[in-house]
């Protein structure tokens, strides 16, 4: 989409999907919850405000994607987020609860870590983490930057009405499904664009 469409074609494609956005993916939210613990879906800057890391409702309300779906002008929830919550909150919260003890990260820690399969599993999980939480977001971010801005100034609002510059850029979210698999220096560089 970055190279195959010019700006006019991209905007036509984008408006055909309106009011949907990259944010609105019930399936992707479920994949994230199957991959990791709820605490790892919270933007790191919000972690100090979590009172009880075992309270799924509180963690769910602080997930990075809920904090990214706010309107630039008001700071309030976007219509996209409000609609998404009305339709999916109950299902997603239950899904989060269902997978806390049996997500991919828990399976690794409880069944693979410390075994002969650990090295290969770490390699695969690190690749998945980078693909989901850096490369995919950067690709989306670069397309948005190319087609929605002019000389680094936003010229077109996001389709979901969100603050997409901070939402899509992985260095602001700092989400890792498998944080124990990364060194502190690797995490400090997480999502930085080359």
Question: How is this structure best described in words?
Answer:
With 194 residues, this protein is mostly helical. The chain has helices at 7-17, 26-35, 56-61, 64-68, 79-99, 104-112, 118-148, 164-168, 170-173, 184-188, and strands at 149-150, 153-154. The chain has one domain. A hairpin with a 2-residue loop joins β1 (149-150) and β2. α2 runs parallel beside α5. It is globular, with a radius of gyration of 18 Å. 28% of the residues are buried. The mean pLDDT is 84.
List keywords for this structure.
single chain; mainly alpha; 194 residues; two-stranded antiparallel ribbon; 2 strands; globular
The percent range for strand residues is: under 5%
First CA to last CA: what distance?
20 Å
* Estimated radius of gyration: 18 Å
Order of helices and strands: HHHHHHHEEHHH
Mean pLDDT: 84
Spans of 5+ residues with little confidence (pLDDT < 50)?
none
Helix content: 55-70%
Largest sheet: 2 strands, antiparallel
Instruction: Please provide the count of β strands.
Output: 2
Multimeric state:
single chain
Q: Report the structural category.
A: mainly alpha
Count of discrete structural domains: 1
Q: So what's the overall shape?
A: globular
Order of neighbouring strands in the sheet with most strands? 1-2
Number of helices: 10
